[in-house]
Amino acid sequence: MTEPQVSVLIGTFAAAVLGGMTVSTNLIRGSLTKVIAANTDRLEARIDSLRHDTVAESRVTRIELTARIDSIEAGLTAKIDSVESGLTAKIDSVESRLRGDRARIDADVAAITKRIGTDPPAI
Q1: pLDDT score for 120
Q2: 82/9 Cα distance (integer angstroms)
Q3: Rounded to an integer, what distance in angstroms lies between the CA atom of residue 8 and that of residue 16?
Q4: Which helix (H) or strand (E) holds 37?
C-alpha cells in the first residue's frame, strides 16, 4: 500500500468513527431527553397531587378549627351568662337587704325623733 492509500484509509476510518460517535451522541441525547421529559411529567404530577392534598387538608383543618372556636365561644358565652346571672342575683339580694336596713333605720330615726319630741331630755 502506498502512502496516499494509507491516508485515505485513515481518513475513512476517522470519518466512520466520528460518524458513529455522532450517531451515538444523537441517540443518547434523544434517550436522555425522553427520560428527562418523563421524569419531569411524573414530578409535575406528584407536585400537583401534593398541592391538591395540601389544599384539601388546609380546608379540613380550617373547618375543624372553626368548629372548635365556635364550641369554645359557646362554652365561654354560657359561663359568662352564668356568672352574670349569679352576680345579678347577688346584687339584687344586697339591694333588697339594703332597702330593709334603710326601712329599719328610717323607723329607728322616726322613733328617736318622736321620743325626743315628746319626751324632752333632762338637763
Answers
A1: 60
A2: 107
A3: 12
A4: helix 3-118
